[in-house]
Amino acid sequence: MTTPHTFTFRPLDPLSDGRLVHSWVTHPKAAFWMMQDARLEDVERAYREIAADEHHDAFLGERDGVPAFLMERYDPAHRELVGLYEARPGDVGMHFLTPATDRPEHGFTRAVITAVMAYLFADPAVRRVVVEPDVANTAVHALNEAVGFVPEREVRKPEKRALLSFCTREQFLAATGVSA
């Protein structure tokens, strides 16, 4: 299994990374990313907006210097979940996407979510990670549970029915043995 320590994170550059990210988010495997019909310009625009947003960031996760996954971090008090739950100080929202591949690697996606969580919890201000995956995305629900997320309830977002779930630093450590 890939270890979280093999990954590094860097800010996504909407223009130089746009073509790669476009290929990832428009692939049928990325249906829950909801960008299936996006043109390259749409993806670049979306990530330029994120880059300009003080409450939302996008990163490429790299393995050995090669882009391997996409991660977004956001402030749920200002983005995605506004009015759907009571945000607490130290809450951070997260999305991640591992791209489709012709040669799947056993344990890769679990290693990615573990690395993403360790990266987020490396910030001492982060007390809890919040996610809101589509209720139908059972694969990500299992991954979330494996790193310590506990589902709270379904919420209705404009684009989907989502499973609001939370993971504290302590829950992450208990589930993975990884300290951030």
UniProtKB/TrEMBL annotation:
Instruction: Write out the pathway annotation from the protein's UniProt entry.
Output: Siderophore biosynthesis; mycobactin biosynthesis
Give an example GO molecular function.
N-acyltransferase activity
InterPro entries per UniProt: Acyl_CoA_acyltransferase, Acyltransferase_MbtK/IucB-like
Cite the Acyltransferase MbtK/IucB-like conserved domain residue spans from the record: 10-57
Pfam families referenced in this protein's UniProt entry, alphabetically: Acetyltransf_8 (PF13523)
GO:BP terms for this protein? siderophore biosynthetic process
Regions crossing the membrane: none
- Cite the entry's keywords alphabetically: Transferase
- Does this entry carry the keyword Transferase? yes
Q: What does this protein do?
A: Acyltransferase required for the direct transfer of medium- to long-chain fatty acyl moieties from a carrier protein (MbtL) on to the epsilon-amino group of lysine residue in the mycobactin core.
Record PANTHER family = LYSINE N-ACYLTRANSFERASE C17G9.06C-RELATED
Q: What is this protein called?
A: Lysine N-acyltransferase MbtK
Origin organism lineage: Bacteria, Bacillati, Actinomycetota, Actinomycetes, Kitasatosporales
